[in-house]
Amino acid sequence: MSNPAAVESSRPSVIPPLPSAAMRTPSGLYSVPLEPGKPILFVTSELADFVKVGGLGDVSAALPRALLRYYDMRVLMPAYREVVESLWPIEIVAHLPGLAEIPACDLGRVYLPEGLIVYVLVCPELFERPGSPYLDEHGREWPDNHIRFARLSLAAAQMTSLEGDDVFSDNGWHPELLHLNDWQTGLTPAYLRWEGDETPCVYTIHNLAYQGVYGVDRLASLGIPEHAFTEEGLSFYNQLSFMKAGIVYSDHITTVSETYAREITTPEFGCGLEGLLSSCAEQGRLSGITNGIDDSWDPKTDAYLACAFATNDWAGKRVNTEHVRRMFRLAVSHGPLFAVVSRLVHQKGLDMTIAAAESIVRAGGQLVVIGCGEPAIEEALRNLEARFPGAIGVYIGFSEREARCIFAGSDFLLMPSRFEPCGLSQMYAQRFGSLPVAHRTGGLADTIEDGVTGFLFNELHQSDFQHAIDRAFRVYGCTELFYAMRRAAMAIYYQWRLSVTPYRRLYHQLMDLESAGNAGSIRRAAQ
Ligand SMILES: Nc1ncnc2c1ncn2[C@@H]1O[C@H](COP(=O)(O)OP(=O)(O)O[C@H]2O[C@H](CO)[C@@H](O)[C@H](O)[C@H]2O)[C@@H](O)[C@H]1O
């Protein structure tokens, strides 16, 4: 494609550190929360303010902020190179000891907009590297990922344990609940329980397919006691599983949509953990809470767009469509513009999109793709672009600016995902008047109304996907219906506010149980 703008810097401008009880409102004014809520630590391996590989980065930036008005919610993450090189000052607040081969490290504190306090693990030998949080520059997993994310998990446990007072005390702040995310944080509840600490833990699965499974020879290096390596503990087919540790030792498991919460109890989607997850569901320890999207996803105010637009301002939307066509050097066209904004991985069904591309072009449509990931998929997409110059444009890379322009400019978004825990791209697309064409699975089934706010197909067959694309073409040719669907899609808004209520209910339930001394017994009964 024609040289899209370089990936924009997400560097914030410098603001002075705030007193810990202060909040910075979106308007930029400082205010003090009326009631400082219970201390909760949200532990994550990505935060979109600094580094985002996929949806976890978005959720980690938005959900703790949405919860800030109810709790003294703080985030813990690794101090990757992007964090250290950002303009936000890092103040060292503690030194955390190591364990076995997990090195000691410093703990820093950063104040981000909207009053979000983020603790960062300053451990240059583990985290200050080129590449992504998980992969090196050549797309290979970092060989010491087990140590890196055991470091993250252990830090959360050390910050929580009251006996660790001499280790970590930020003006007496200690979490009363931990909200953990994905396998990278799975060892946290295990480290806590092995020390006899019963602080309640919520463990959210954003994607069960990534599990952090390692050979049994790594146990000693992570300080894992031998007695824990059992079928009931963290042995997964005689290997060590971080994901299983998170499920076994946490009080409650959530995942990011109700449908996916049901799906992962079946062999088709359970990735070998369906038995354990089924028993969690039977015990009431597994639930689905659909993700939201943050307020920045608004076509009326998004500064990245070629032209801001609102519902019914289809001329404004068309300016964005023409902008995308120019970005990708596509021909002038009156046909529909299809789009893909995705990590390029097997999960996302790019093989089906590639197989459908020729029919889209033959029917007078065009396709733009932005994404990066598996080299074979990247190459197949480049070949596709070369076969259909002027009709298909591909940008291999990651750029939120370009992604937003594509959501705004496209007519349809293709998401034939094999599975999709929630999916954010379809929600962004709907908000920007682009109708998703998606497989009826996971969160896609929960957030798209077939024939109203998008198109769903039931079986993962090429012919079913093609049929859904054909329906999209027909609706595009029927202007009134097409605009009615656009209006319906733009009207639904999965605000975080809606997801916050079930999280609050869950937190309260777990913290009350804990203060009544019941959490331990409930957990034990559940295991
Ligand atoms: N090249 C690119 N340039 C710019 N932006 C790009 C991009 N490629 C992807 N993105 C963006 O990255 C995010 C991807 O989020 P998704 O939720 O759609 O999928 P992901 O599989 O990463 O997340 C996992 O976690 C999330 C969060 O819970 C679940 O919704 C999801 O189902 C699960 O697979 C979106 O914000 C998308 O716009």
UniProtKB/TrEMBL annotation:
This is Glycogen synthase. ADP-alpha-D-glucose binds at residue 52. It comes from Larsenimonas rhizosphaerae. One of its GO terms (biological process) is glycogen biosynthetic process. Residues 40-278 form the Starch synthase catalytic domain. Synthesizes alpha-1,4-glucan chains using ADP-glucose. Pfam families: Glyco_trans_1_4 (PF13692), Glyco_transf_5 (PF08323). GO terms for molecular function: alpha-1,4-glucan glucosyltransferase (ADP-glucose donor) activity; alpha-1,4-glucan glucosyltransferase (UDP-glucose donor) activity. Its EC number is 2.4.1.21. Pathway: Glycan biosynthesis; glycogen biosynthesis. It catalyses: [(1->4)-alpha-D-glucosyl](n) + ADP-alpha-D-glucose = [(1->4)-alpha-D-glucosyl](n+1) + ADP + H(+). Keywords: Glycogen biosynthesis, Glycosyltransferase, Transferase. It is an enzyme of class 2 (transferase). Belongs to the glycosyltransferase 1 family. Bacterial/plant glycogen synthase subfamily.
